Amino acid sequence: MRLYIDSAVTEDWEVWTRRNVLYGATTNPLIFQKQNVDFNRRTVVRMIDKAKDLGLKALQLQVHGLRQPKDAAKRMARYFERWPAGVVAKVPLTAEGLAVLPLLPKDLPITLTAAYDTRQAVLAAAQQARYIAPYYGRLMESGQDADAIVDAMLAVCRGKSRVLVASLRSAEQVVALAVRGHDTFTLSPQVFEAFMDVPQTQAATAEFEAAASMLEKAAGHKAGFFKS
What we know:
228 residues; alpha/beta; TIM Barrel; 8 strands; globular
């Protein structure tokens, strides 16, 4: 299972790194805009260094400025040079996006992003892209059969590209997809938090802590049984 966090706020990364569940982080210009994070080279370089420091395995950054493909590719190549083991280039599934691919470093992993149709999975498999990222929530909200589309992508890409399901609205959606074999997701901080919202677990843990406290007091620490 690979879980990415969909956020340009590195404090979000820190929270879930401490909880030991993150594989990496994904970003795009819209995320920067929505989270009011400065979108410039200096910020991205700091993010790359932060991802390395936190021990993340990957940071996905979007290729942009597609009307000047050489410049777009050079920009991404500089990020890749800073962290060859972790930077992944997100490339939109458009003619302009695909035209950038030959200009990128050969070893740079690729995510073909903004996928809405199973036909695009064929392109991802042909390119041997590391990931294809369908927008599950947006598919549902547009009235399309999101489940059928992402499941078909999984079948087409099996053994060639991973289906990185994005635009998820709830923990329940993630669970339903996981039951059907999906194992790679990028989640907003809000959806991540929903996984922690299990009142019975909180109540049981409180009982464990209360019992441990009572036992320690009763023992009076005479034998030092509870001491490390």
